[in-house]
Design goal:
CATH class of the largest domain: Alpha Beta
Distance between the termini: 67 Å
Number of strands: 17
Shape: globular
CATH topology of the largest domain: Aldehyde Dehydrogenase, Chain A, domain 2
Strand content: 15-25%
Helix content: 25-40%
Strand order of the largest sheet: 10-13-14-9-8-15-16
Radius of gyration: 22 Å
Largest sheet: 7 strands, mixed
Amino acid sequence: MGKPVSDALHVDVAATVRCLRWTAEAIDKVYGEIAPTGPEELGLISREPLGVIAAIVPWNFPLLMAMWKLAPALATGNSVVLKPSEKSPLSALRLAALAAEIGLPEGVLNVLPGFGAEAGEPLALHMDVDGLVFTGSTAVGKHLLQCAGRSNMKRTYLECGGKSPNLVFADAPDLRAAAEAAATGIFYNQGEVCTAASRLLVERSIKDDFVAMVCAFGRTMQPRHPLDPGAPMGALVDEAQTARVLDYIARGRAEGARCVLGGRRVEPVPGGCYVEPTVFDDVRPTAVVAREEIFGPVLAVTAFDTEEEAVALANDTPYGLAAGLWTRDLSRAHRVARRLRAGSVWVNHWDGGDMTAPFGGFKQSGTGRDKSLHAFEKYTEIKATWIRIDG
């Protein structure tokens, strides 16, 4: 998909294995419940598999996103039809071949490559699909919700877009570390990450110096051939995505934001889909580059003067997937974290957590959670069995 091969090996594949192993170990930690009844009754609360799960996954982390769905769905006793992105079907097909090789029963894991209209939408409309899980854009997620409603009201859980804010206060414990994390948070995987730190909100008193540090780190992350093991950035996924990113850069300039880093297409490989790390400063909160998910290496910087203003700017978005804040004030860290409307909040770092932490969004970033024991909730129905005991 264009990501540097080192990231594919050490992040995507390694995290996929961790997800599978953790889920296999975790499934026997999920228990039923007994209701607090009197001696004449017994109330049992149990979980049962949904049945058939349709899992529609994206191209940016095609193996890991598939495993986030497959592992808990299979562990809770469901069968799965996996629909990979039409841009990235090969890893899903390889995964299914390995599953068949180790003896997974026929029909338990199925891979259905194809375009959304030809494969994804029919799954969402199918009357024999009991659950639908999806990672991708908010627009497609809304359409899938409509399909579920038009068909059998199948249980539908979505992990959708993001425009995640990264708040840096003047009292951050290490501004250089914060600047490096701000650059990595948006330029990692060419910005093709749902939790990309695409909005940088900086206290005005330190803004100019901090942006200069972010740009300095950005200059060290120029794209190179994805098979170069030392490449800090690779190629965008395809020509269409490259054109989309360049169009947003042009719109950012047209709306008056200052492009202080990058902003151009480059060719470390002739004809390739490469865009420089790009930073826009003095971005108005209403600007397109501050409102819409670009899914590319484009950072929008806005200054704030007070904590109240920072929180208001951070929450002024239809999305709510992730947020970060940098401060040495423990009270402020707790206070602001509670007020940020996001499914994940990271304090003095970016993109933390492991398989024990749930992942998902508020607002139009989706419903339900991947990872952690909470992921099992998406793939099971809760049944209450009430027994009267005579005598």
